[in-house]
Amino acid sequence: GYDVLDPSGKVTIRWDVMQDNGATQDVRLWIFNYQLYRHVDYPGWKLSWTWPGDEVIWNMWGAEAMEQGNCSAIKGQQLPHCCEKEPVIIDLLPGTPYNKQVANCCKGGVLSSLTQDPDNSVAAFQMNVGVSSSNGSMAAGIPANFTLGLPGYTCGPPVEVAPTKFTEDHGRRRTQALATWNVSCSYSQFLGSPAPMCCVSLSAFYNDTIVRCPTCSCGCEGAVGQTCVKPGELPAVLQLLHNEAPQPAVKCTRHMCPIKVHWHVKTNYKEYWRVKITITNLNFAQNYSQWNLVVSHPNLKSVTQVFSFNYKPLDVHGNFNDTGVFYGLQHYNEMLLQSGINGSVQSEFLLHKDPQLFTFKEGWAFPRRISFNGDECVMAPPDEYPRLPNSGQVKAPASCCIILFSCLLLTLLI
């Protein structure tokens, strides 16, 4: 799960014991997305764990249990919430009544990345935890086997850390939790999806060749188990499940990727050069909200202007700035719509030429690496990149003419 472009990126679950009531505890749970560019999209996180004993959740604010089991009665009361050994908790939706909310709750399970919207990269909810034993004197234990319910994420064991300190009443009062445990969760693209989800095509003003996405980048059309929507046809009626991501309905292509990124070297000026990026959604079943594109190129430190995307450099390697994040403008193109007429977003950006780092020769005008929403895209091998015309071939006919003329002149003199 290690990412060289985001070495500290992880999702952290924090378990804060806020108050001990004897037979029950007030617990506040937090989910922090510390990843620079990978976010959690709809349908969102589904937090789950395994209780060490016969603990149960008495009440909950800011979230709810997906399934409520047949709860046993404690002191003649029926438990209102989750009594399962392995609960599954989901976030409430925006617009939840205030008496059911807590701070940072009710975002539908969506977590933004730190780069795009750090204020919405955290989620929280609160619950009252007890035990279902008859005497009610046993304290609730710390769960194990945490999962986020997100493909590709793996969580470690809880680790006790220093109790969390809080600032309240507009900074005039400081409190702290009774005890705190952290759980770290990392992401692996290999575990997240069985095949890549995007590919990159390339072109340039100085070459008529368009390097298309490699064949079978994300799958092979006609292969066993591969289904797609043929051009000109509409997808079948999609069955949307509650709290589940829709199954992809991808347009039939030679690469079979839901997302295609096209990089075009558009213009060459004396001191600058211009690139156009187009992102096309070929999935009929999904909109991509808060999408982002991470690009690695040695000349990115000289980005001068970006016209219709946001751009932020990723300074993860100190002064060696060769990677940046492109993402949409709010209320304009932060949503990449389903496949169709409006199923693409594009922008142009201007870069200053750095003779020590940049040249059009040998394909240097093209990126080294591109990822979409944190998943690396498939690119053509570098020897297929559009190249400048070979100047040696242009000079060769003139050289041959000079040699032939010299031989002819020598013959006449003899």
From TrEMBL:
Location of this chain's protein in the cell: Cell membrane
GO CC, alphabetical: plasma membrane; side of membrane
Membrane-related topology note: Lipid-anchor; GPI-anchor
Cited InterPro entries: COB_C, COBRA_pln
Pfam families: COB_C, COBRA
Domain (COBRA C-terminal): residue spans on this chain: 198-229, 238-386
Domain of life: Eukaryota
GO terms classed as biological process: cellulose microfibril organization; plant-type cell wall cellulose biosynthetic process
Keywords associated with the record: Glycoprotein, GPI-anchor, Lipoprotein, Membrane, Signal
PANTHER family in UniProt: COBRA-LIKE PROTEIN 6, PROTEIN COBRA
Sequence similarity: Belongs to the COBRA family.
Name listed for the protein in its UniProt record: COBRA C-terminal domain-containing protein
Source organism: Escallonia rubra
Lineage, uppermost ranks: Eukaryota, Viridiplantae, Streptophyta, Embryophyta, Tracheophyta
